[in-house]
Amino acid sequence: DLDPPNVTTTGNHENPRDTLQGGLLAKSFDQKSCLSRYQSSLYRKPSPYKPSIALISKLRSYEKLHKRCAPGTESYKRATENLHKLSHGSGEQCQYIVWVPLSGLGNRILSLVSVFLYALLTERVILVDQRNDINDLFCEPFPDASWLLPLEFPLTNQIDRFNWRSPRSFGNMLKHHRLINNSSIKSFQTSYLYLHLVHNYGEYDQMFFCQGDQSLIRKVPWLIVKSDNYFVPSLWSLPSFQSELTKLFPKKDTVFHHLGRYLIHPTNQVWGLVTRFYNAYLSRADERLGIQIRVFHHAGFLQLVLDQVVSCTQREKLLPEAQEEEVNISKKTTPKLRAVLVTSLNPEYSNNLKRVYWERVSSTGDVIVGVYQASQEMHQQRNKKLHNQKALAEMYLLSLADNIVTSAWSTFGYVAQGLGGMKPWILYKPENYTVPDPPCGRATSMEPCFHSPPLYGCEADTGGTDDSLKIASPFVRRCEDRVSGIKLF
Ligand code: GDP
């Protein structure tokens, strides 16, 4: 029996456990190799958002494609052998997209999910660059076939050098008209292209989000992509993708929620961090609140941010006000336990909150507030196994809360809200060292924000714009925490 003992689930006890998440997950997996895949339903409330039949069937056919083309197959062997030929892609049975990790873990998860959606839409096989710690963080998501790009992949040594200036970058090829005209059908004469979808991308790289350019890219057997962004909202601008996307996601703001839950399964080691913490501090609470505190461009504690957190949580009634104890308060009812999970690089925020609710009583008298923090890593680190594992565990723990408060701009928070299916209260970015008024606001959707959407339209004469919303589809709106960003709602 793989169920952990004595878990007080937040789940619905009347319904049998939906381990496969409404059909989102495939059945044929070895349970022990990835406990989180099966046990997450013990810790989560069942999602109110059911995946569409179209999405489920798309995922099942993707899994078949993946198995047919994965490393180790004849098709993969042939496709890699053809890498150095000047192929137009004709006759290739399997086409690939290689995801290369970039930036912090939140950014990575967002770009991974975006690339996976693009792979689904274009019938490409996603493979992930495994040279960092991907294997220590996530289980294999597809049955009977690996998603790890073999280390001996012929371009491995070049991947790190790929950037927007690279000769095989899509933007560069486009800019220099490196296209061939074959009976008036244009195409790239290359077996691979590098896609630069990083926040600093330029006009030509951004043409990735244009219909005509997608037909050029479509013929190239191998794509290698670097991105630090959740570029899903702009895929909705492409007419050829739009109709399929609306079928797959009739409720548009569930893209990350479903694909994240499908793709992101913490390894057993990370799952241990999640479950031990949950069982020790959160499982017995009547309600769980997550507070994700991320302060950019400042390493230490900021009193201002603590004031903002207190002001937000009390104003929004997520936490009770704390007041001096009155001796004659009658306490008839058993108080409810509200567990607060604080995530932050610094320990001071949770220490201060803890002190407030220990030294004082809650104004309503019927709530006991317990404050907990898992790690205090102090500084962001790159490619350190345990550091990243803790970060993933904490994103996941936040996603198990009933409500969350997140920090503006932070992809760490986006992952938690998306996995959890929650509209967070966003702590607005403080300007001029003052607590913003209001200190926070409720997000309109649980979708992550695309921080750097294209600023150039697809027509030759569009030119740049300072309003990315003008060239986006009607399914998106401006992000609450970043005016230049867009999100599905
Ligand atoms: P973003 O920078 O807030 O958008 O989020 P990212 O996850 O992309 O990058 C921040 C990185 O800093 C994380 O991946 C962690 O490595 C580290 N970090 C930031 N906040 C926390 C935290 O609350 N807990 C832990 N464990 N790590 C954090």
TrEMBL record:
One of its GO terms (biological process) is cell wall biogenesis. It comes from the Eukaryota. It is found in: Golgi apparatus, Golgi stack membrane. Its EC number is 2.4.1.-. It is a single-pass type II membrane protein. InterPro entries: XG_FTase. Keywords: Cell wall biogenesis/degradation, Glycoprotein, Glycosyltransferase, Golgi apparatus, Signal, Transferase. Its main location: Golgi. GO terms for cellular component: Golgi cisterna membrane. GO terms for molecular function: galactoside 2-alpha-L-fucosyltransferase activity. Pfam families: XG_FTase (PF03254). May be involved in cell wall biosynthesis. Belongs to the glycosyltransferase 37 family. This is Fucosyltransferase. It comes from Brassica campestris.
